Amino acid sequence: MSRKERVYQNMKNVKEHTMAAEETKDFTELENRIMAGRESYRNIPVPEEMERRIREATAGQGKGNRFRIPAAVAAAVALLIVLPNTGADIAHAMGNLPVVGKLFQVVTFRDYQYESERFDANVEIPQIVVEDVKENTGETAESTETVQGEQTEEFRKLQETVEQVNFDIDTVTDQLVEEFKASAELGESYGSLEIHHEIVTDNERYFTLKLSIYRGAGSGMESYKLYTIDKQSGRQVQLKDLFREDSGYLDIISEEIRDQMRALMAEDEMKAYWVDQTDIPELNWEGLKEDQNYYFDADGNLVFVFDEYEVAPGYMGAQEFTVEKAVFEGMLNG
Asked: Does CATH place domain 3-239 in 3.10.450.350?
């Protein structure tokens, strides 16, 4: 059996366990079954890169906090499923393991939990796994060498992009966790850290993973990182990559968002945005950036995601604005 076949078999086993949990609700029995199958997982050859990342994830554990590692490991290309120690948590983790689209899967690679009188953290660190493009295009074994070569190149680009995104997610979350741990060790104030993820786009063309970050230290701060991958090119796509350079998209879409802000403030006097400020004009939002956080919704509209304080006072929280495709579709590349 090839490595790929072993990976798919292990993923199938995980799904079967999930179905059993939903049917019986017997979490203890589920945990026992998973632990009983532990030896079969251990016999799967683990890539060197995966072994390195597991060692890093488990290094330096101390009192009061924990980077949790799995009770069972399904080894794949950058695939690690975290199963906590209690039966109920195992059922929850497996029941929320999403299988998304034909190309991508997103799993919680690691998680970090901390709780004390002054500090608390709940961190999920996701990773994207990509399936073989050739499998999903419906090509048969009789495909020509040219077509197979093109598919191999497409998959290589896609895999490189996924690895870059996963590396960035690791870098961002590790830095935040280390900063939190340093503050918690001092214990001189209060603090919290929440990191979660969700898939906000998965259509024929684009896949977007949204990383939500909340940091609390006296007052809170919401921020986001969104990763969009073009399934056709296999590359990560920033906002600037979507539009023609001479289209003036930044000014046009920015003014559309300002109009929405003005309309919202006219409807509700409690709402405030940094637009049309005459007393302190330097507070006014300058407009979209080329790397602005965005994603496509189910209707093909663009949703722009702003961190807390980016376009409004802190009491307004983080903000999102939807721009209908009729506004921008004539400016798109391709």
From this structure: no
